[in-house]
Amino acid sequence: MEFIKDAVAWVEIPVIDFSRAKAFYEAIYDYEMQEMEMGPFRMGFLLHDRETNGVGGAICLGEGHTPSGHTGPKLYLNGGEDLDVVLNRVVGAGGKVSMPKVEIAPDMGYMAFFEDTEGNIIGLHSMG
């Protein structure tokens, strides 16, 4: 197998109430989420730089997309330069901080976890 740049190509965060989830992610990232219907799915796109082939993702409502709570794979969203900016908006947007910011290692940055309005446990990562 050849060496690949990114371990992840795309991510979908399952949601139960699309409008509530959209409002939550718009609030914690302070942006207007673009959305569209893709076949039987309703998707809202997470912030990423498409022009430089940044890895993207979306919140997704549709059959087979069920929030997993504390089970299943763990997803870490980019927290920018300092994940506290995003993490500090979680409670006000209707979510819960499940693990505050902690240092992973001096050269690996920081991480934190939050529970979104749909019950998903999502990680954040930043170097600062």
Strand order of the largest sheet: 1-4-3-2
Order of helices and strands: EHEEEEHEEE
The total strand number stands at 8
Strand content: 35-45%
Question: For the CA atoms, what is the radius of gyration?
Answer: 15 Å
- Count of distinct structural domains: 1
Let me know the average pLDDT: 93
Total helical segments: 2
Low-confidence stretches: none
CATH fold-level assignment? 2,3-Dihydroxybiphenyl 1,2-Dioxygenase, domain 1
CATH superfamily: 2,3-Dihydroxybiphenyl 1,2-Dioxygenase, domain 1
User: In the CATH hierarchy, what is the architecture at level 2?
Assistant: Roll
Main beta sheet: 4 strands, mixed
Shape field = globular
Ends apart, CA distance between termini: 33 Å
CATH class: Alpha Beta
Helix content: 10-25%
Helices and strands: which structural class?
Answer: mainly beta
Summary tags:
four-stranded mixed beta sheet, 37% strand, 2,3-Dihydroxybiphenyl 1,2-Dioxygenase, domain 1, 12% helix, 2 helices, 128 residues, mainly beta
Overview of this protein structure:
The chain is mostly beta strands and 128 residues long. The protein has one domain (10-126): 2,3-Dihydroxybiphenyl 1,2-Dioxygenase, domain 1 (Roll), CATH 3.10.180.10. Helices cover 12% and strands 37% of the residues. The strands form two sheets. Strands 1-4-3-2 form a four-stranded mixed β-sheet, with helices on one face. It has a four-stranded mixed β-sheet with strand order 5-8-7-6. A hairpin with a 3-residue loop joins strand 6 and strand 7. The longest helix has 12 residues, at 18-29. The protein is globular and about 45 Å long.
